[in-house]
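Quick one, tokens below:
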């Protein structure tokens, strides 16, 4: 079970490394290879694919990473009001229900976008656009699962450090 729970973190870690490598390749091709090919009067190196790959990785990183942040309780929170533990539990449940609803809406419309764009492809690499919109489905689904898990089995409360 622990292996399954770690899959999103591993995927995001690999995507982050791949995005950094993709960015470095883009910089190399733009700032090193263009002057070299211009100087040598060679055909230019095409690197429009770098942008497409970067956009896809960014979408997947953002949407899966948001769900991971929810489960790890690392998203930004604003503590204006203090409640008793029972009142705070109610606020947390309502908060997670709202997140689950937003995740379900994202998942639903992500499926619709996948179906609508399944016949289209990106211009450079001709990757099916459903791959891009599937990130919304996976991210929304993970938000729903993690929000429900926070309601059913909430992590122990942590004491926030207050600056007074």
């Amino acid at each position: 079970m622990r292996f399954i729970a770690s899959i999103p973190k591993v995927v995001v870690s690999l995507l982050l490394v791949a995005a950094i490598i993709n960015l470095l390749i883009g910089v190399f091709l733009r700032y090193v290879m263009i002057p070299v090919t211009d100087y040598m009067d060679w055909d230019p190196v095409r690197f429009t694919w770098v942008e497409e790959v970067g956009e896809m990785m960014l979408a997947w990183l953002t949407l899966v990473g948001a769900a991971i942040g929810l489960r790890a309780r690392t998203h930004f929170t604003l503590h204006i009001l203090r409640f008793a533990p029972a009142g705070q539990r109610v606020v947390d449940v309502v908060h997670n229900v709202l997140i689950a609803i937003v995740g379900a809406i994202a998942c639903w419309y992500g499926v619709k976008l996948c179906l609508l764009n399944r016949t289209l492809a990106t211009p450079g690499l001709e990757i099916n656009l459903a791959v891009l919109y599937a990130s919304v489905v996976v991210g929304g689904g993970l938000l729903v699962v993690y929000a429900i898990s926070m309601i059913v089995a909430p992590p122990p409360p942590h004491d926030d450090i207050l600056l007074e």
